[in-house]
Design goal:
The complex is a heterodimer of chains A (189) and B (96). Chain A is mainly alpha-helical and 189 residues long. Chain A has one domain. Chain A has 7 helices and 2 strands; from the N terminus they run H-H-H-H-E-E-H-H-H. Chain A is globular. Chain B has a 3-stranded antiparallel beta sheet. The longest helix of chain B is centred in the first third of the chain and has 21 residues. Chain B has 4 helices and 3 strands, in the order ααβααββ. In chain B, 60% of the residues lie in helices and 12% in strands. In chain B, strand 2 and strand 3 form a beta hairpin. Classes of the chains: A mainly alpha (189), B alpha+beta (96).
Chain lengths: 189, 96
Amino acid sequence: MKNFLTLSVTSFVFSAVLWVLWHFVDTHVLFLAGKGGFFYFPHAARVLCVVYFGFRAIPALYLGELVGPYILDPGIYSFSIFLPSLISVMSVPFALTMLNSLGFTLGQTRASPLNRRNYKHILLITFISAGFNALLVNLYMSRNNLSFSNAITDIEQVYRFFVGDFLGTVFVFIFLAMLLIPVLRQARN
Amino acid sequence: MKEFYRNISDALAMLDGMEQDLNIRHFTPNELKVFYTIIIRAAYNEHGSNITDIVENSGMSRSTVYKTLKKLSIEDIIQLNQSEEDGRESLVVLNS
């Protein structure tokens, strides 16, 4: 129970902080303003938390997804995002389940088909989950005639979601690697 | 709690591998800014970004950008190709 609480708080804070950072960059950083779709940081929280904490992180991640658009900046979206956010969070479990069914089970040793200590394997999960997220969220939006302001729900938006989730996650990974250099160095010695 | 720390330790091991492969640990904040700008520009132009674009988008001085590009090029992280449209212009391309 204590472990569940700890991982839930960590997942929630991580997801919400990444959303705030992304929103700030998307609205305030001059040359990146309005281009946030191409570097969506919060997907990194989905990937990292589900891969390392397991499916138990899903409720906290879902709350983290909702807190930004509903509490920090209400009205940013013109439609309800309860279901799209759930689909986005579930894109990582979908990717892991698909890989698992193909024989690529997630483990933590070199012998594991998917080693969670190997960043290339994590990038593969990111790639597939970004694909699921792009396809399923846009399918839902398209079938319900929903769209973001100043955007059309079309194949270009699918592409933007896909590239944005992947690039945003890579960006966060590099940032964390740089930020945690002292910790990593200490752990290595 | 032990399980939580084990999970965090695995995540750190993953980041450590990435940091070692990218070989960017000795970069200064200004150099990192230039590097991140190159990554972002790469999303818009697969043939490479010109140096003027990088100077404008990174907010760094031309000399800092040139020094950083030289360092990244020596580290084999990027390569500088001559533009086909303008022979005087170099295009910065990320190495895969």
